[in-house]
Structures are given as C-alpha cells and as structure tokens.
Fold:
Amino acid sequence: LAQAFQSLVRPLLAKSDGELGPWREALVGALGPNGQLMVDLVPELTLIIGDQAPVPELPPQDAQRRFQWVFRRFLAVFANSEHPLALFLDDLQWLDAATLNLLEDLLMHPDVRHVLLIGAYRSNEVTSSHPLLRTLDALRKAGGLIQEIELAPLARESTGQLIADSLHCDRARADQLSALVDEKTGGNPFFVIQFLTALAEEGLLTFDPDAARWTWNVDRIHSKGYTDNIVDLMVGKLERLPVRTQRILQELACLGNSAEFSRLALVHEGSDEELRHDLHDALQTELVLPAEASYRFLHDRVQEAAYSLIPETQRASTHLRIGRLLLAHTPVEHREEAIFEIVNQLNRGVALITSRDQKEQLAELNLIAGKRAKVSTAYVSALNYFVAGTALLSDGERNQRPDLMFALGLNRAECELLTGDLPAAEERLTMLVSRAISSIDHAAVACLRIDLYMMLGRNDLATDVCLAYLRYLGIQWSPEPTEEEARREYDRTWSLFGGRDIETLIDLPVTSDPAVVATLDVLTKALTPALYTNANVASLLACQMINLSLEHGNTDGSCLAYVWLGRVAGYRFGNYQACFRFGRLGCDLVERSGLERFKARTYISFGNFCMPWAEHVRAG
Structure:
C-alpha cells in the first residue's frame, strides 16, 4: 500500500513550484495536524508539506479510527470526480491484518468515492480461513460491491496462438512445440514467455536468417528434460548469469521485491560503477527492471528463484550481514525511519548472534520496531516484534535489563489485547504487576488491565484494579464507600478552589510530571466501569482527579475530570449551574490547551451529563 501511494506522490516532486502549490495546499488542508501519520507511510510527503508535528497519543482503538479517517482524507486528494483513481494491489494474499482492515474501511465508508480498487491474489495460496477471504466475505455481507474474475490458465489453443504469433509462423507448424510448452507450463502466461525465452537463450530456439524464420527441434527440447516448475526454470536462467550478477540478485532478493539503488550498493559493498556493471546482464534479460532510483524484480517468482540460489546454510548469515550494514550506515536520527528494514534482516539472522550485548541491542531495536508498528495500528506485526525481542533476552539478561524486559512485556500484552488474545493478555498483565518498577509502570499495567476487564464485561474487576493501584499510592478507599464519604470528598474539592471561579481553572499550568499524568490516566480509564459498579466510587474518582489537577496542573485527563465533576455536582448534589460550568470548562480546556487525548470522551460526556440541564435539547 505504501508503494502504491509513493507512486502517486513521487511524480509531484518533479513539478514546478507553481504546479506543486495547489497540491501542497490540498494535502495540508486534508491532513491538518495529522500529517505525520501519512509521512510515516510515504516519507516523500515531507518534501511537499514540510516537517510535521508529532500527533497526539490516543488510546489504540481511537488511534486506529484516526488513522483510517486521515487516510481517507489523504486518498480524497488524489481521487475526485474530475480525476478518478484506480488503485491496483498485487499479492493480496500477503497483506497483513492492519492493511486488510484499512482496505475494508476504504471499501465500505461512504466518504470514499471515485476510487476503483483492483486486487490480485493467488487462489492456491488462500484457504477458507485465510484473513483475505474472511475480509472479502465480511465486505459482501455488509453490502460491498465485489466482482471476482478468475484468471484461468491459457487454453491449449490460446497457447498455440501465442507461440505462433511470437514466432511469426502458422499454427500447424508450431503445433508440436505448442503442445510441449503447454504441457510444461500448464498455460501460465508468464511461464510460457519465460520458457520460450529460455529455449532461445540455450540455442534450442534459433532464427535462421537464410530461411527468415525461427527453427527448433522438439526432440532436442524434450531431451533437455525441462522442468514444469516455474521457479526451477527461473533458477536455471539465473544460473546462466555471471557469478557476480547472481550474487547481487541474491542480495536484492533478501531486501525484497525491489530496493533503492543506494541500498543495493551498500549491501553489495562495491562502487556504484561496479553495481551497474554487475546488474547489466540481469537488466539485459529483463529479469530485473529499473524503476526511478531503484531496481525491482520482473516477477515475484524471479525473486523467489534468486533467493533459492542462496544455500540454506548461508541465508541466516547473509541476512545478518545485510542487517548489520544497514544498521551501521543509518544515522541514529534516521534509524526509526528504517527500523523495519533493519530489524527484519537482523531477526532472520538471529540464530547466529551469540554476543549478549548484540542480543540486547536487537531486543531494543525490536521494541522500537514494535512501537512504530503499533502507532500505525499494525498490531499483529507489532506483536511479532515484541515476541522476537523478548526471546532474545535470557533469564540472566532479563534480570540485568528489567526495564527492557518490562517494556517488551507491557507492549506485548497490549497487542495481545488488541488482537483478541485476551487470556494471554490477562496472564501477562498479572505477571507484570509484580515486575513493575515505578509508579508509571504500575499505572501502565493498571490501564491495560482496566481495558481488558471492560472488554470482558467485568466492570467490577476493572474498578478493583483501580482501587488496588490507589492502594499502591497510599490511598485507601473502600470498594463500597458511603454517600457521606462521597459528599465529604466533594466538599473538600470545592474547598481547594480557594474562592476561585470555576472558569479560572483553565489557566492552571499543564503538568510535566509523568507520574501525575500516569495516575490521571488510570483514574480516567476507571471512571466508566466505576459508574456501573458503584456510583460513589465514580464520584470519589472525579474528585481525586480534580484534586491532583489543582495541586500539580492540568493534564489530558483533567478535561474529562472537570466534566465528570460537573456530573457529580448536578446528578448527585443538585447544583446544575456548576454542572454546566464544569462541563464547559472541560471542553474549553481541550480546545485552548491542546489536551486532546480524551477529546471525544470529553465532548460526549458534556453532551450527556451537562447540556441537558442547561440548554435546549437541539443544542446538544
């Protein structure tokens, strides 16, 4: 998907400033403050819209919805009634869950118009339980318009016509050759063309200038014992290339279906001139094609064949060498941009890493890669990185780097939660409670455990987690506080205002204390389950959040806390004027201070809890 949109953006870079201006304006207007999300996907965008500010951190499900919304707006810049967009994606069978979810959103959302999505996949590599087929089935059930065209192999007659046209002869003369080619290739068009090319390269299909026609001997071709496997055929073609050309194709295959010239030159460890020289024969045979500042294989079967040329015993060492080269030559400030490329290579050579320091370094790199994948809502991929990072640390190393081990475990648990493996997430989070080092660690575990129990419909257990966290901080609350206790805490909160107007609380400084922010995050998570478990606990939580904000300054959680304190003032104690003022304060704080992590919850809580008592129903 990233490659597809890179192909849209790169032509813009060749435009003059005057031509580029409207595109820049459209992209900036569409992406707004969320441009970094698309820059992560298409780095070339920076050259058009400039450096982008980091996007606010959001809860995972909100982050996924934001990414989909931004992606739709990005797509709309290129797809409109005057300029429809046809988007072709090959090899859908290899798409990860995050990309499939994004495509499902694009295909079903009413805001996506003037887009034709064409996809191709190998049906023989897709079973009924494959995520792709499940996605297509879900789209059909939701009313999506999907047309499937099965590309059957060429019929014998069509193969014969193709060969006769290629050799400029009549069908009858090519009949025996056509039968042989059809038998070997099964009517696969790509295979047919490559088979004919192989015959010509080996002198079994030659042009007779005197007779002005192509000639061949079917018996000689039979005697060569050609394979009926396309990869084996491509291997044979590659093996006829010079050894140095084979080596560079092996390196290209390790990098993927395509690679930038600079990357390939780095991995080849030669000069640019040597690289061009070594690639010459592969380019001449069109097994590799130039594409702007990069090279790509003609077909993924060619990549597969090139990779198979690497002896199995040398594959891990080849990937490890490539990964180390990429790591060593990527400046630290740009390492995160190339993190997937680096880590994917190193992980494939992990069996050869014996140094404790190198294992620890790779574990840290996997943590970075996992976090970056998680930000892109690719939770399955992120989980794989966290698992790989954890496996690199032995029991002794885990004790020496408890911070790294905890970070890997926490992020792993979050991704297990987000991918639906709730039992694994619960087990891991329970274990992490005892491994948390700081109050911030304890808060992070508590937040995920609250999310987990809310997903399981156990508001009582989610509330218990919050109360246990407060006990860790030294705050002892009964799980069933009385009305009197709730009233006493509410009155204490009012007393802390010190005669200040409610509206002036917007001028409190924004706290920079991460421990306070973490605590407010836990209490924010617990508000809803507490309300369904014990209303007095919910009242105490809202008051405690305000008390912390008054003492240390406002945070993202403070916005929601003010609205919920308004709920306590109105619903619980009948002060509906204060209810509306507190609610308005929470919304104003979001808008004026940029504390947007809980923006949606703040607004909907204001609409539900505060507005009905002060404004006409239509205003909400």
